[in-house]
């Protein structure tokens, strides 16, 4: 598997490439990356299938948080059903992200861009009621995405009419360029959501933030879940987690708020499942301009300066 490539912040027209840390280097790859993977020993596939299983179980509750009609084709036929009254934190986060995405995108005029950083089995492109002119980019493992795409096509899954769904392999040597090549426009609004994307190290997530910071316009949202261990602190020590998270996001131009799973549960009239859940739910807002916005501003400034020089020359 080729390593993902990231970017040093630079004008959109001339990106500078640097080696990514999304995956270990070729000399230090984990053994499972070298081995022939299957359903029993592929950790990415297992994680994606487990998440789909939680969505499948949630759909069969008497009063589900959401309905995922496509989760069933992604899980094992003999999946164990656990229909306890309390809602799993993953499902609470899924509902929260769903609602936030739709409420935000429905207030955007014209072209709407959604960037989903996923486990490869995210069904949001198919199950959510996206408005017209929505372009959805899914960044995920190519092998997992291909497996799920075949199954989803087999059950007739389709994105809403007048919407476009594009996949960007996580293994791409240049994610930012790949998004541009697929038609992403840094001068148009976008919403970024992460849930399920395999984040191996803190450096991985920093690169995700760097890419989002480079491409997202000022005022755009980045939300979702990130592993709590990234904060290098216990999940229960919220003040320390908040301080760490604020510093991390602000260093990339985002103002971030942490969202409590218990607060989401209460707002939905549900009870949160007991036990530890090692993720952090967040919503962040981009405070700085995207690379494309900066380039547009630079060109406009240059044009004004050139026109001023011409006027001054004519006066002479």
UniProtKB/TrEMBL annotation:
Domain of life: Eukaryota
Signal peptide feature range: none
Name the UniProt record assigns to this protein: S-adenosyl-L-methionine-dependent methyltransferase
Coiled-coil ranges per UniProt: none
SUPFAM superfamilies named among the record's database cross-references: S-adenosyl-L-methionine-dependent methyltransferases
Gene3D superfamilies per the UniProt record, alphabetical: Vaccinia Virus protein VP39 (3.40.50.150)
Keywords recorded for this protein, A-Z: Methyltransferase, Transferase
């Amino acid at each position: 598997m080729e390593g993902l490539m990231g970017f040093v912040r630079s004008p959109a027209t001339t990106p500078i490439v640097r080696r990514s840390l999304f995956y270990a280097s070729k000399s230090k790859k984990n053994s499972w990356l070298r081995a022939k993977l299957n359903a029993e020993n592929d950790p990415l596939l297992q994680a994606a299938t487990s998440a789909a299983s939680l969505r499948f179980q949630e759909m069969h509750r008497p009063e589900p948080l959401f309905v995922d009609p496509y989760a069933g084709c992604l899980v094992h036929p003999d999946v164990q059903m656990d229909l306890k009254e309390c809602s799993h934190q993953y499902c609470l986060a899924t509902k929260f992200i769903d609602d936030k995405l739709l409420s935000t995108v429905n207030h955007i005029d014209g072209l709407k861009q959604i960037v989903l950083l996923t486990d490869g089995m995210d069904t949001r492109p198919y199950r959510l009621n996206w408005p017209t002119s929505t372009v959805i980019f899914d960044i995920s493992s190519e092998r997992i995405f291909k497996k799920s795409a075949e199954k989803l096509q087999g059950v007739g899954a389709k994105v809403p009419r007048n919407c476009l769904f594009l996949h960007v392999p996580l293994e791409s040597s240049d994610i930012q360029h790949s998004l541009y090549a697929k038609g992403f426009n840094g001068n148009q609004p976008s919403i970024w959501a992460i849930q399920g994307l395999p984040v191996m190290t803190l450096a991985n997530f920093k690169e995700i933030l760097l890419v989002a910071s480079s491409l997202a316009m000022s005022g755009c949202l980045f939300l979702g879940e990130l592993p709590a261990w990234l904060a290098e602190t216990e999940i229960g020590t919220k003040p320390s987690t908040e301080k760490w998270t604020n510093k991390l996001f602000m260093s990339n131009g985002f103002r971030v708020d942490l969202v409590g799973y218990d607060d989401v549960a209460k707002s939905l009239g549900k009870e949160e499942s007991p036990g530890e859940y090692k993720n952090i739910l967040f919503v962040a807002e981009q405070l700085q301009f995207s690379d494309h916005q900066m380039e547009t501003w630079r060109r406009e400034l240059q044009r004004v300066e050139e026109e001023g020089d011409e006027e001054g020359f004519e006066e002479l």
